Amino acid sequence: MANTSFTMDSTNNLIKQDDDEDLPFIDDDHDDDIDQVLEEESDSHQELSTKFNTEDTLNIDTLQKGIPDKFYILSHASIPSGGFSMSAIQNVFSPEEIQRLKLQPENVTIPAALLLLFPDQFTSQTRARKESRKRKILLHTGALSDDGKFDPDKLKIAKVGDRVVPGDVVAVQARMEHNYSESANHHTDPPFQLPVVYEDDYFALVNKPEGIVVFGPKGGNYGRMTVKSCLPWVITPPKLGVVSVLRRPTPVHRIDRGTSGLLVVAKTKPAMVELSRMFKERKAKKTYTAIVNGDILQPDETSITSQEAEKLGVCIGDDGDPESRKRSWQIIDNELEDQNAVTVWRRVMQYRGIENARNNTLSLVELKPKTGRYHQLRRHMAWTGNCPLLGDKTYDGGGPARLLRDNGFYLCSNKIVIEHPFYNSPQGRSMWEKVKEDEIKKFIDQQDNSVRITEESDGRVLVYAEIALPSKFIEITELVNENIVTASDGEDEEVA
């Protein structure tokens, strides 16, 4: 597998890295608490394997109402009649903490009670305090009724400084009814069209238009014209009973403003953690299609087989064509800003006789990034392939290429293969067994097969999605239809 030599000039080496493609993305809106979710839960995935966070659906009719409306009590425990044993307290807290918090067998703080009553869910005082500050903990003064009911007059939202005594009941609650319109700033219509390609109770795939940013930084003056702002209008809230739902659906990665295509959106906190992990570990397999300016070459020394491409971790054969596994591919393995950057690609077809294009030729290429560095695909095509994206004013080098910039650059994230963030979890497997027949059939019934969910031979549940290329790609094809040269599936393309 060849490694093509590559050198960046000093100007390119100083490009600011403020919009990395496909990097895990944390929404810094503290109303959503996404930063805390990732900080607290990604490092301790065991904490997610609890009724509080990952059980797919609870029967609302069996749950008691919490505080305020739309919150329901998931679990509760009573302070023992004789208090906690001193040995149990000493196993959890240091002597200094016991003295500072004035912990006694019959009188402890709410965070201390959480650690003692729910050790699997609350493994640190920090987490217990945070959950209390998020109004997720309730305190019932005295015992429950004989039939196990909470008395509204004795129930309140617990504060970190509250203390409990024998007989008191501590409860954990969660918001169970969700309405994204509460986050939509009371506007009637979405700010722009954002098609939903796939959606279930846990995550969604949307088709981001060109020219729209995923998330506008503070002070960026994007207003409502961001994907994040638009999502509450187009995403359906999870059904009643799904727990750990994000207050607003949130993207888990980002793609360039000028790039269109598939974007992954989380709807629950566990899905946010799991999807972010997939992107960090490069397990989300994406395919881009681009039009580049010039007659891009495919040297033998950088050619690899489909089998070699698959070993790199990119998805080959995701178009359902059995012949696709016989294709040869090209690899670009060149560092960007001293970081490993790998792109697998192939030329699909060429358009001849294009005025102002390099060698009067444009090339349609398929790109499969193994890594996701800043402007990786655009820079690899321009600097290593010597064929920048059509219309890419940042990397096209100027000259006659300036006359081809009217429609922006031609890059679309049009395919993705991703593991389902819930159905592959220990808790989600039981739910998958119940719904898989209907889920698989639902997508088989679609005529175009553009979206499907499957169970692989190894048991993994995968979601495949493919979208049509934007109209400007089609317009280029129609404009030069008589001059198209189609790629063969052999080692070399037949170029007229």
Describe this structure in words.
The radius of gyration is 27 Å and the shape is elongated. It is built from 11 helices and 19 strands. The two termini are 29 Å apart. The strands form 3 sheets. Strands 7, 8, 9, 10, 11, 12, 13, 14, 15, 16, 17, 18 and 19 form a 13-stranded mixed β-sheet that branches. A 4-stranded antiparallel β-sheet has the order 1-6-3-4. The longest helix is centred in the last third of the chain and has 19 residues, at 426-444. The chain has helices spanning 34-41, 86-92, 95-101, 110-117, 125-133, 227-234, 269-280, 306-311, 376-384, 426-444, 471-479, and strands at residues 71-78, 108-109, 137-140, 155-157, 163-164, 169-175, 196-199, 203-208, 245-251, 260-268, 285-293, 303-305, 328-333, 342-352, 361-369, 411-419, 451-455, 461-466, 484-486. A hairpin with an 8-residue loop joins strand 9 and strand 10. With 496 residues, the chain is an alpha+beta fold. Helix 1 (34-41) crosses helix 7. Residues 1-34, 40-55 and 488-496 have low confidence and may be disordered.
